[in-house]
Amino acid sequence: MSGLSCRRVIVAGVGLHPFGRFPEKPTSQMAEEAVQGALENSGVAFRDLEIAYYSHVFYQGASPGEKLLGSFGLTGIPIINVENACASGTTAIWLAYWAIATGQVERALVLGAERVPRGPVAVAAEDDPRRFIGDDHMMARYALRMRQYMTTYNASAQAIAGVAVKAHRNAALNPYAQHRKAFTLEEVLQSRMIADPLTLYQCCPTSEGAAAAVLVSEDARKEGNGAPAVYVRGAALTTERFHSRSIDNPDSVEAAAREAYEQAGLGPDDIDVAQVHDAATIGEVLRIESLGLVPKGEGWIATQKGRTELTGDLPVNSDGGLLAMGHPFGASGIRMLHETVTQLRGEAGLRQVNGATTGLIQCSGAGGVCTVIVLSR
Amino acid sequence: MNYTIVYRAPSSWQGQVPYALGAVELLDGIAVTAEIVDCRFDEIRIPMAMELTTRVGGHDSLNNPIVVYKWAPASPRTGGTS
Q1: CA distance A86 to A121
Q2: Is A203 a catalytic site residue?
Q3: What is the dihedral of CA A65, A16, A315, A304, to 10 degrees?
Q4: What's the helix, strand, coil split of chain A in %, to 5?
Q5: Residue of B nearest to A133 (CA)
Q6: Residues 6+ apart with CB under 8 A from A99
Q7: ipTM strictly over 0.85?
Q8: What gap in Å lies between CA A319 and CA A329, rounded to an integer?
Q9: Option in B19, B30, B60 nearest A134 (CB)
Q10: Are strands B2-6 and A9-20 parallel, antiparallel or unpaired?
Q11: Tens digit of pLDDT for each residue in A307-328?
Q12: In angstroms, how far is CA A46 from the centroid of its own chain?
């Protein structure tokens, strides 16, 4: 996906339904509120959309996107259901971006809405023997990576747990977040053990929620709400290559980052605020390294020094991230887009990163999927 | 090798909880991840010679037993890998 002569793409509007648990509220209602928010925020009418993508992981019947969007009108447009594990939302954004950049459509909608069941997350299908080997457990895999990281770089569990303290502190400033309560490092380390050394507050919750965005070509942009235009500058989607899983091996995050930076004509030093896949505390540490935001082996040090705080030189997961904002799989990538657009417009209120003009989104998914999207004002 | 003790498991897991999960590196550098059996948690060491074994890991929806691989401490006879 390079070497094309591409049109510029703008995120015209974003909408969000709070993340959390909403037992009384159907998924369709959360989706409607997010879509309504994105339409109003963009100034684009539903009837003017030319394509829509619905990202989700958990089964909600055949063609759920058609059903969810039907209440807005039957306009005959292509509606595509997207499933790519935790990277489903960013995969939908990637598809919408390229549909507009290559001139297929002028206006696209992305929607993620989901209810994730409670309890530790496994990914193998029913009757898949991998369920019984012991490694079909996302947090157990992160625990192994954390132990390997700690050994390789002599990193402390306390420093890595600091990611969760920072995430909850940011979420406390975010009315849409699932966990709006700050925790001390002691509370994070002493919460229930899930898979040693990962404690409960170092693992993202399972969540319900919805997020939506309207992307448009530069030509199709209306003035909207008068906010500054936020451009998608690069969007890359990769999967794993075969290699031994040594911690120093280049991974799918590095490949996606390289491609997205190249498209954008920007590098890691240009990024003012980043939303990365912190399903577990160690996930954020590993990914800020793979993205080149900090050198290899120094993610835990950057965390310990406060560089990733809202007030640091490299704010990461400014809205609380998966750890505290919550993680309704299909909605998470679009939630990251919501936060990035809000930050780059200067509308983030108490969690505003001063002077942010460029932002980055990184989402990983089971199966070695990785998406990186670079945006700027 | 590397390992973790898992205290909370997904509902699809039919084995005991807690359990030990080991990532054991083969001689060519590839790591294979599986439950460590036949070993108390406090007996696990890094490095530790391991060998692959098989177990009935659970039953499918038709109640057929499903045989999968697991790691176990290497017997002196085989030597194992760590």
Answers
A1: 11
A2: no
A3: -90
A4: 40, 20, 40
A5: B34
A6: A51, A105, A108
A7: yes
A8: 16
A9: B19
A10: unpaired
A11: 999 999 999 999 999 999 999 9
A12: 25
Which residues contact residue A337 at a Cβ distance below 8 angstroms, ignoring those fewer than 6 apart?
A11, A14, A89, A90, A93, A110, A211, A213, A361, A373, A375
Positive or negative: CA dihedral A240, A246, A247, A249 = negative
Q: In what order do the strands lie in the sheet with B19-25?
A: A198-199, A193-195, B2-6, B19-25, B31-36, B65-73, B50-59
Closest CA to A206 of A117, A91, A80: A117
Q: What is the pTM of this model?
A: 0.95
* Residue A224 clears pLDDT 70, i.e. is over it: no
Burial of residue A232 (CB within 10 Å: 0-12, 13-18, 19+) is buried
Spell out which residues of chain A touch residue B2, defining contact as CB-CB under 8 Å: 144, 147-148, 151
Interface residues of chain B, partner chain A, Cβ below 8 Å: 2-15, 19, 21, 23, 28-31, 33-35, 57-58, 60-61, 66-70
The residue-averaged pLDDT of A144-161 equals 96
Contact at CB, B70 and A134, closer than 8 angstroms: yes
d(CA A106, CA A203): 39
How far apart CA B10 and CA A217 sit, in angstroms, is 43
- Backbone dihedral region of B73: left (phi > 0), alpha (psi from -120 to 50 degrees) or beta? beta
DSSP B41: G
Number of Cβ within 10 Å of residue A4's Cβ equals 11
Of A132, A141, A197, Cβ closest to residue B66: A132
The two structure tokens encoding residue A48: 């003017």
